[in-house]
Amino acid sequence: MCIKYKLLLAIVVLTLQSTALAADPNMIAVYWMDAGEGNRVWDYSGNERNGTMNGAVSWSGAGKIGGCLEFSGGTVEIRNNVDDLTFGNADRSFTAWLKTTANNQCFFSKVTSGLGNNYALGVGRDGATEGVFSMTYRNQANMDSQAVINDGEWRHVAFTQAYQEADGKELWTVYIDGAFDAEQLTNITSDNGQGGMFIG
């Protein structure tokens, strides 16, 4: 997924709308990333979208809140219960704490069978300002934050997509460290959902 870089990542929350930490049809997954041992990353949403660590990924006690995962080129792969997850034409939100000095690297992606990375969140991208938070959706739309987030400090990033049924468009909004950063109106097509999710 990503070439070698160093990223500390803790607490990834993916939702439709709800943010409750219980089994909920509106919750996609919650990863505290603080188990500290083994090769499994547990989903605390109750939806059993657990991940498996592959490659250069290790546990660290130096998280923002407790432990975290340190990525140096590996990934966490999530294949269970993800085929029904689509991105376009739906409300979505993503939040995470991350700490990195990398650029042009993804830290979360959803792969769709036959299409490659259907959507990806990362630090920078081809053609973007170095070190910004970037969202890319299957070459149909891109969005970048104003703030630089690869300064080696813990940064909280949040991305929301609000589907506007009246015109079929999606409003993307980015928040960095709890403050509004940028927004963009997009018009993307829905994917077929089949594939997997990757962290790192």
What does this structure look like?
By secondary structure, this protein is an all-beta fold. The protein has one domain: Jelly Rolls, CATH 2.60.120. 0% of the residues lie in helices and 51% in strands. It contains no helices and 16 strands. The chain has strands spanning 7-15, 27-31, 40-41, 51-54, 57-60, 68-71, 75-78, 92-100, 105-112, 116-123, 132-137, 141-148, 155-164, 169-176, 179-186, 195-199. Strands 1, 2, 5, 6, 8, 13, 14 and 15 form an 8-stranded antiparallel sheet that branches. Strands 3-4-7-16-9-10-11-12 form an 8-stranded antiparallel sheet, with no helix packed on it. A hairpin with an 8-residue loop joins strand 10 and strand 11. The relative contact order is 0.21. Residues 1-6 and 17-21 have low confidence and may be disordered.
Number of individual domains? 1
Instruction: Count the DSSP helices.
Output: 0
Coarse shape: globular
From the N-terminal CA to the C-terminal CA, the straight-line distance is 7 Å
Q: What share of residues are in beta strands?
A: over 45%
Low-confidence stretches: 1-6, 17-21
Number of beta strands: 16
Q: Radius of gyration over alpha carbons?
A: 16 Å
Helix content: under 10%
Largest sheet: 8 strands, antiparallel
Structural class: mainly beta
Please tell me the overall pLDDT.
80
Key terms:
Jelly Rolls, 0% helix, disordered N terminus, mainly beta, 16 strands, single chain, 200 residues
Write the layout of secondary structure elements.
Layout: E1 7-15, E2 27-31, E3 40-41, E4 51-54, E5 57-60, E6 68-71, E7 75-78, E8 92-100, E9 105-112, E10 116-123, E11 132-137, E12 141-148, E13 155-164, E14 169-176, E15 179-186, E16 195-199
Antiparallel strand pairs: 1-2, 1-6, 1-8, 3-4, 4-7, 5-6, 7-16, 8-13, 9-10, 9-16, 10-11, 11-12, 13-14, 14-15
